Amino acid sequence: MTGYGRGKVTFAGQSITVEISSVNRKQSEIALTLPRSLGEIEPRLRDEINARISRGRLTVAVVLHEAGNRAQMGSGSTINLAAAKDYHSQLQRLCRHLKLSDSISVETILRGPGVLGEAVRTEVDPEVIWPGLQKALRQSLDNLLAMRRKEGAALAKDLKKRIKFIRTAAQTIAKQAPLVMERHRAALFERARNADVEIAPTDERLMKEIVFFADRSDITEELTRFRSHLDQVESLLDKDEAIGRTLDFIIQELNREVNTIGSKANDLLISQAVVSLKTELEKIREQVQNIE
Known about the structure:
The chain is built from eight helices and seven strands, in the order βββαβββααβααααα. It has helices spanning 42-50, 81-97, 106-110, 126-194, 204-217, 220-237, 244-265, 268-288, and strands at 3-11, 14-23, 28-33, 56-66, 70-72, 77-80, 116-118. Strand 5 and strand 6 form a beta hairpin.
């Protein structure tokens, strides 16, 4: 599921920002970017994330800089915000004095004295900074999961509509199932008449054929299991926990039962209903891949 979360904490003289974005993936995949000085605690970060998120491709960025006027840039340089503001004010006064248009670019300000300089590289003890980093990480995870829950609620609503459609199709199959044997019996008599063969309704061979067909085409157990699996899906959709992998398994079982029903029933009307079921189950299967 998709989402975005951000957490920011000031701790031990450092401003710590953690940003996490997620996109759909069946498995968990984490792309983590953080300062080299924090490399040794990367496994802890991954453990924290994996403990709360089991699916999706996550892009995680940890930004660490000294709290104050200087904000670190990716190039290893820093911007002195106080000097930048002062230089900008001076340029504005100059423009007014010379009656020039006030179109001062960022590039112009960065060339001002003392605005741009080399970052002061201070070693950060990972153990000292960890409590603050952990707090910022958890904030970002909370925000990410809140966004994903909203998406999940909308997805669950759509899945319930599809389950309702599937139940209706299953009811159609259940109503048709008892009629299959009668249609088969009528077909046997029709073939006999076409072949000019007289068959009595109580003919032993006919009765054996009908009983054999009835036993072979009985789908009562499959329908019972199918309904039970649908109940499980609806129950899971109402839970506030990770259900993706369980749903994935149940959808596989539903497909298995539908395939068995289609192969055993040997009836046109039931086969048509089975096609509709399989189409809808495939749509559900695709959506379930994105559920946590």
